[in-house]
Amino acid sequence: MAAATATALSRVPDVEIDDGGVFKYVLLRVGAAGGPGKDVVRGHGWAEYHADLFERTAAELAQQGLGCECLGGGRLSHRPEERKIHVYGYSVGFGRADHSVTTEKLKAKYPDYEITWADEGY
C-alpha cells in the first residue's frame, strides 16, 4: 500500500498556477493517512475564495486515494512577460501560507524567473 501511495503522490504536480495575472493561491500538504506527504501550490484566477482552490484540489486528490490539508494561502502576481512572480498576502479563512516554502516550489518550476515574496499586502 505504501508503494501505491508513493506512486500516487509522485503523480501530483508540485505547482499548478495560472499562466499570468494576479490570483489567490493555497499551500497544501498532500498525502495518505499516516504516510509520507509533500507540499504543493495551487493558484487560479477562477477562485473567488481560497476555499474554492482547497475544495477542488481535495476532491481531485480523493479520487487518487490521497488527502490534503491547507497550510495557508495568499496571492500570486504572475507576470510571464517579465519572468516574475511575487508571492504575498494571506487567506482570511486559512491564514498566511509560509511564502518562503511557496517561493521554493515556484523556483523549482520556474527556474529562469525572478521570484520574490513579502508578508505585506492582501
From TrEMBL:
One of its GO terms (cellular component) is cytosol. One of its GO terms (molecular function) is protein histidine phosphatase activity. It catalyses: N(tele)-phospho-L-histidyl-[protein] + H2O = L-histidyl-[protein] + phosphate; N(pros)-phospho-L-histidyl-[protein] + H2O = L-histidyl-[protein] + phosphate. Pfam families: Ocnus (PF05005). Keywords: Cytoplasm, Hydrolase, Protein phosphatase. Belongs to the janus family. Monomer. Its EC number is 3.9.1.3. InterPro entries: Janus, Janus_sf. The active site is at residue 50. This is 14 kDa phosphohistidine phosphatase. Substrate binds at residue 24. It is found in: Cytoplasm. It comes from Calidris pygmaea (Spoon-billed sandpiper).
